[in-house]
Amino acid sequence: MLDLDAEVAATQLAELTTRAAHLAGDHPIRDILDIGAGTGTGTFALLRRFPEATVTAIDTSDEMLSHLRASAARHNLADRIHPLRADLDEGWPTTPRADLIWASSSMHHMADPDRVLRDIHTTLRPGGLLTVIEMERMPRFLPDDLGFGTPGMEARCHSLLDEARTAHLPHIGSDWPSRLTAAGFTILESRDLTVDIPSPLPETAIRYAHATLSRIRSALADQLSPEDAATLDALLTMEGPQALRTRTDLRVHSTRSVWITTRTR
Ligand SMILES: C[S@@+](CC[C@H](N)C(=O)[O-])C[C@H]1O[C@@H](n2cnc3c(N)ncnc32)[C@H](O)[C@@H]1O
């Protein structure tokens, strides 16, 4: 799902790395840290933008890092990526001093994001850039009325997801500008990263919709009404008039909040 997300949002991510390069000005970007790198969405976008850079990709998950390693080898980029397994909740690992630190959809996972932000501040060279990206809601794909089931199924799923995420990820949707400022960063730019793809969707976006809705289906297995569960199952079948793949009314809509900041002291 993360790799498909990277493909679907590739243009917007490229715009964002261009903006970071512009804000870096004359400061060379050579050492980059990707915090909670996952399968490498940020890592690869940054390597493309900064051809002299290497990226230390930090993640607590061996599975994510081995996926990232395999992609790096496939793209002949293994010598520019240093995967580092570390649980940042347990403390800051030994890392090079960084010119740019990237934290995409990862800060809200931290048990104590303020402590991690202070460690990031220490690791970033003065004048370096920290970019934080947070997505408060999963992307949306479906029209309200699917022509079967009770209208509003996707909205009901999102309400349940919001409750679950608030319970399990208490820092989601928190006041990141205040936290960044308190940790010593100056916000250079706040922006939204919005992906809007109208119907009919290209194949990658349909696969992205399928992967995301499958994940929602399993995350909410115990909470969905039987009717909404059956509606989702019909959408997720590979064939048939109700299947995602055969529908012509899907779209992608997602928004992330982005803060590009710098260490000024
Ligand atoms: C939603 S994914 C985002 C991945 C990637 N940055 C992206 O934008 O696609 C969050 C990542 O943070 C990692 N993560 C969560 N808690 C962590 C921690 N305490 N230390 C290091 N990584 C962590 C997870 O393993 C996961 O790969």
From TrEMBL:
Do the record's keywords include Mitochondrion? no
Q: Which UniProt keywords apply?
A: Methyltransferase, Transferase
Organism the protein comes from? Actinoplanes subglobosus
Q: Name one GO molecular function term.
A: methyltransferase activity
GO biological process, alphabetically ordered: methylation
Which Gene3D superfamilies does UniProt cross-reference here?
Vaccinia Virus protein VP39
The protein, known as: Class I SAM-dependent methyltransferase
Domain of life, per UniProt, equals Bacteria
One Pfam family linked to the record = Methyltransf_25
- The chain positions of domain Methyltransferase read 32-128
Q: What InterPro entries does this protein map onto?
A: Methyltransf_25, SAM-dependent_MTases_sf
